[in-house]
Design a protein that fits this description.
The chain is of the alpha+beta class. It has a single domain, classed as 3-Layer(aba) Sandwich (Beta-lactamase), CATH 3.40.710. It contains 12 helices and 11 strands. The strands form 2 sheets. Strands 1, 2, 3, 7, 8, 9, 10 and 11 form an 8-stranded antiparallel β-sheet that branches. The longest helix has 14 residues. The chain is globular, with a radius of gyration of 19 Å. The relative contact order is 0.19. It comes from Saccharothrix australiensis. This is Asparaginase. InterPro entries: Asparaginase_II.
Length: 314
């Protein structure tokens, strides 16, 4: 994949390192206002695909809305309210925590992880950042009478529904298949297709797409967590649907129709938010200023910054 330079790491006046990647920014008509790198090539959306997975579940009867639907779209920090929400989804479906097939893990939120370890607790499926999605997948299986013990099988009716929904919203066929970090099937599409999917969800006026958009934009702390950039981004842009993903993926759709998707080639998460904000600015959308750069620290204080490259700033 031919990525381009998208971010520069400056320590004082010295260019210390760089990040390459691919970016697409779509205007409200779906036209590409910005193309950097190779956003037409297939990439794994990773957790940025969760809003589409949740949409597939809603279309098949998932009885969630509000904060719990936002949690189904989340890579949550593992704060107490997130974990309690996961158990509420399972309880509503009449299932025990042992039904979860996601990987046992610790909370990914720094404060939540510190408190968790201080309390002497170890890894468990409920703390895994994808547990909200997994609980919702199980609840969807219960509604439809589908097997719950094999819900991660790519041939399971649930996962076939997810694939079909992704292809519909992206406007292209799945180009790669794999296994995500949480154990769920992973379907690859282009960044252009991912941006289209987010635009479709964010602009919906009714139906299950609108339910996903409303849940995420109205409950952003359930999608990420305290201090997380995805939460701050949606708070700053009312009605926006944004989702971060592993290996440097990020996507956002706006209710006015603009959409951005990006991937950092080296998989680092530190540049993805600033790259996303820079691409939004090319669309005339002012994202939160505190996400436009990332400080580079020396002895605990800012001595430089990570900034978007000229390919994004024009």
């Amino acid at each position: 994949m031919a990525h381009e330079l998208v971010a520069e790491v400056w320590r004082g006046e010295f260019l210390e390192s760089v990040h390459h990647g691919s970016v697409v920014a779509l205007d409200p008509t779906g036209r590409a206002e910005l193309l950097v790198g190779q956003p037409e090539q297939v990439a794994y959306p990773r957790s940025s695909n969760k809003p589409v997975q949740a949409l597939a579940m809603l279309r098949h009867g998932l009885p969630l809305d509000g904060e719990l639907l936002a949690l189904a779209c989340a890579s949550h920090s593992g704060e107490d309210f997130h974990v309690d929400g996961v158990l509420r989804i399972l309880d509503g479906a009449g299932l025990p925590e042992s039904a979860l097939r996601c990987t046992p893990d610790l909370p990914i939120g720094e404060d939540a992880r510190t408190a968790h370890l201080a309390a002497g607790r170890g890894p468990a499926p409920r703390y895994m950042n994808c547990s909200g999605k997994h609980a919702a997948m199980l609840a969807t299986c219960v509604v439809n009478g589908w097997p719950t013990d094999t819900y991660l099988d790519p041939a399971h009716p649930l996962q076939r529904a997810v694939r079909d929904t992704l292809e519909e919203l992206a406007g292209e066929p799945v180009g790669a298949e794999g296994v995500d970090g949480c154990g769920a099937p992973l379907f690859g599409i282009s960044l252009v297709g991912l941006a289209r999917a987010f635009a479709r969800i964010a602009t919906a006026e009714d139906g299950p797409e609108r339910r996903v958009a409303r849940a995420m934009s109205e409950h952003p702390e359930w999608v990420g967590g305290t201090g997380r950039d995805v939460t701050r981004l949606m708070r700053a842009l009312p009605g926006a649907v944004a989702k971060d993903g592993a290996e440097g993926v990020y996507a956002i759709g706006l209710p006015t129709g603009e959409a951005v998707a990006c991937k950092i080639a080296d998989g680092s998460g530190r540049a993805r938010a600033l790259v996303l904000v820079a691409a939004l600015r090319r669309l005339g959308v002012e994202g939160p200023e505190d996400l436009a750069t990332v400080p580079v620290l020396g002895h605990g204080r800012p001595v430089g910054a990570i900034r978007p490259s000229s390919a994004l700033t024009g």
